[in-house]
Amino acid sequence: MPKRFGEYGGAYVPETLVPALRELECAWRTARRDPSFRAELSRWSRTLGGRPTPLYFAENLTRRGGGAEIWFKREDLLHGGAHKFNNALGQGLLARRMKKARLIAETGAGQHGVATAMIGAALGLPTEVYMGARDMERQAPNVQRMRLLGTKVHPVTSGGQTLKDAINAALRDWITNVRTTHYVLGSAVGPHPFPSLVCDFQSVIGRELRSQSRARWGQLPDLVVACVGGGSNAIGTFHPLLHTSAQLLGVEAGGRGRGVGASSLVKGTPGILHGAYTYILQDAEGEVSETESISAGLDYAGVGPEHAMLRDSGRVRYVSVRDDQALAAFHWVAQDEGILPALEPAHAIYAAMRAAARLPHRRRVVVTLSGRGDKDLEVVLRSDAQRAG
Ligand SMILES: *Cc1c(COP(=O)(O)O)cnc(C)c1O
C-alpha cells in the first residue's frame, strides 16, 4: 500500500491522528489477506449491495453518437443508488473488526452519508454524519433518509457550509474520539492510508468490468470513462486496467465554463488539502478556491493523489465538461435508454459520446454510471425551466 503516488499523497495531519492512521493501515493490511474478511465483504456486497452490477449496451445512445459502441457499468443499480456503497461497506466491516463502537462520516450531496447510514444500521454501529448547513438545505431528502436510517446528522455552520467544511468537522470529531470511533472517509482523498483503502474497496468496479468485458467480447474495451470528484469511482474503475492497453479518460466538472468550476486536475496546481499533497484549486496565496458545479458530488477543490500522479504520467487523460453539456447528456440517456443518470456521471457520458463519435463503429467505450439521478430531479427541472424561460 503506497504512502505516496510519485510526489503526491502523504499524511499531513496533526500528531493526534498519526496513531489512528497507523492502526487503520495495519488493520487493513491483515484484513485484506484474511479469507474470512474477504468472504464476508463479498457476501454483503452480493446480498445487501446487489453485486455484481451489469455491463449494459446503450444501443440507442450508440446510434445517436454515430461511432463506437457505448456501454455502461451500472453502479447506479447498487443499493443506495451509487458506488458509495462499496466503500462504506468495506470501511464499516473494517471498523467492526477493529472493535470501533461508532462510525462518523462527512457528506456533501448526502450520497456518502446515506451509504454510511445504511451500513451503520446493517452492522449495528451508531452513526453520525457531518453535513454543511447549506448542503442540508439543498439536499433535504437525503437528510431525511439518513435520519430514518437512525443516523444523527450534524449541521456544519463554519466556512462556506459545504463539503470542505464537513470534512474539517469530521476530522475534528475523529481527533477527539479516535479510540472509539472510525471515520468513514467518502472518497479516495485525505491522508494515507485513505486513498489506497478507498481505491481497494472501489476496485471491485474495474475488476468486474475486466472480467465481464472478456467474457462478453473476449477482450477489453478500447476506452474507459469515469467522472472525477474526489476520484473514487474513477480510481476504482481505472486501477485494475492501468497495466492493460485500455485508454482511460477522467472527466471533471467545468461548472458554467467561466471560472475554474471544480476541475482540480485540469485547472489546479499542487498543494495540500485535507492531509494530502495533490492538485487543488487555490489562489496565488494558496487560499483554497470556491468551486462551482451543477452536481454537488463533483463540487470539491481537491482530488485523490493517485489521480495527480496519473495526470502527470499521462496514463490517464483528464478533461472538463460544463454544466450545460452534462444536462444535455442527462436528457439523451433518459430519452434513449430509459435511465435517469446522476448528474455526476452525466459529465462522463458527455465526454464518452464526444470520444465515441471520433472512433470507428467496431470500437467499444465503457462509461461508469456511478449513480442514479433521482436525487437530481429538482436541479434538472429547475435548469430546464430557466433555459426555457
Ligand atoms: C459522490 C459521487 C461522485 C463523486 O465522487 P468520486 O469519489 O469522485 O467517485 C460521483 N458520482 C456519484 C453518483 C456520486 O454520488
Task: State the main characteristics.
389 residues; alpha/beta; 4-stranded parallel β-sheet; 14 strands; binds pyridoxal-5'-phosphate
Regarding quaternary structure, what we see is single chain
Q: Which shape, going by the Cα principal axes?
A: globular
Count of β-strands: 14
State mean pLDDT (0 to 100 scale).
Answer: 96
**Beta-strand content bin:** 15-25%
The secondary-structure element order is EEHHEHEHEHEHHEHEHHEHEHEEHEHHEH
The end-to-end distance, rounded to whole angstroms, is 53 Å
Low-confidence spans: none
**Structural class assignment:** alpha/beta
Please work out how many helical segments DSSP would assign.
16
Strand order of the largest sheet: 3-4-14-9-10-13
Mind describing the biggest β-sheet?
6 strands, mixed
Which small-molecule ligands are present, each listed once?
Answer: pyridoxal-5'-phosphate
Rounded to the nearest angstrom, the radius of gyration is 19 Å
Q: Percent of residues in helical segments?
A: 40-55%
Structure, explained:
This protein is an alpha/beta fold and 389 residues long. Strand 1 and strand 2 form a beta hairpin. It contains 16 helices and 14 strands. Helices cover 46% and strands 17% of the residues. Helix 3 crosses helix 14 (323-337), helix 5 (111-123) runs parallel beside helix 7 and helix 10 (204-217) crosses helix 11 (232-238). 56% of the residues are buried. It is globular and about 55 Å long. The chain has a six-stranded mixed sheet, sandwiched between helices. Strands 7-6-5-8 form a four-stranded parallel sheet, sandwiched between helices. Strands 1-2 form a two-stranded antiparallel ribbon. The model has no long low-confidence stretch (mean pLDDT 96). The protein starts with a strand and ends with a helix. The site of pyridoxal-5'-phosphate has 19 residues, from helix 11 and helix 15.
